[in-house]
Amino acid sequence: MMRPARTLSWTAGLLVVLAVVTVVSAALGPVRIDPVTVAKAILNAVVIPTEIVTGNARAVPLVDRHVPVPGLGYAPVFGFDVPDTHQTIVSGIRLPRIVLAAVVGFALAAAGTVMQGFFRNPLADPSIIGVSSGAAAGAVAAIAFPALVPFGSLHLSAFAGALVTAFLVYAIATEGGRTPVATLLLAGVAIQAFLGAMISYMLVHSGDDLRQAVIWMMGHLHNSTWGDVQFALPVALIGVLVLFTYARDLNVLLLGEEDAHHLGVDVERTKLLLLALSSLVTAAGVAVAGVIGFVGLVVPHIMRLIVGPDHRILLPTSALAGASFLVATDTLARAGPAEVPVGIVTAALGAPFFLFLLVRREVHSV
User: Fold this and answer.
1) pTM over 0.90, yes/no
2) What sections of the protein cross the membrane (predicted)?
3) Do 109 and 321 form a contact (C-beta atoms < 8 A)?
4) Hey, which of 139, 143, 172, 340 would disulfide with 187, CB 3.0 to 4.6 Å?
């Protein structure tokens, strides 16, 4: 099968998996709803603004069709007969959380795939250059010392912290127009250690806000809203799409920087773009969901074993698999009598699986 056709077939299959996982997840909860009703409610949540009907097109995200928006009317695309209670539960409560989980998993798995290829290291993940630590520092600062943070939103504070950290690591590692990968890695480790100390200090002095800060750092999707989705989705989707255009260059970089240069790749420019875009999509995911580990580490490994190392196939499939993985693990996180942060579940599942790969000698340089 030709590569574009193979990529499309894998992508279509993983989209079906994501749709199934979404329906199952939305059906589970204190109020059980049958999957057919859930599917109808999800389709009912797809709406278009009335301006589109009159010819003025506007891009609008999924929203609850029962929520009025001042100055803007909505027309549902579908009109399935679903009880109002079930429609509200699915589209207003469960669906925002599920969509956000899919967006975050999509972003983290894609960034992890790029980082593993960039560093040619199977242990690389989206947090390797300190992006997650920077986001955590920004979020904890916003929680513990809101008066000192120039951003009014925890999301914005975490997002800014992540991007500032990525820029700082890159600036430290760059000399004479070149950014050695080893120096970049060491700079990331040093900055992470420093930020870890800052976070610990802020936690000690966070007072009554300690529990909120700790839960955020564990990674959670509790109380997710469509506003969270609107914050993360555009950055994650556009960032991953642009990363996909550099999949061939990432393949060439696996041969080594010198060989990549001889094959016509602008190595330093490509490295900068890959790092910037990976940091951007990671920042978007971490800013809305906290620090969720192992998604960007384990999912790319699994997909690499299944589809091979070609990033033209590996990147989109890993991103979609990451979306399904985080939706599934978040469903487990809220399935018990007491909800737990999803980061605990991903670590509990991801760490043993990664150890299994190590024992089987399936983890090797990419």
Assistant:
1) no
2) 98-119, 131-149, 156-173, 185-204, 225-247, 272-299, 340-359
3) yes
4) 172
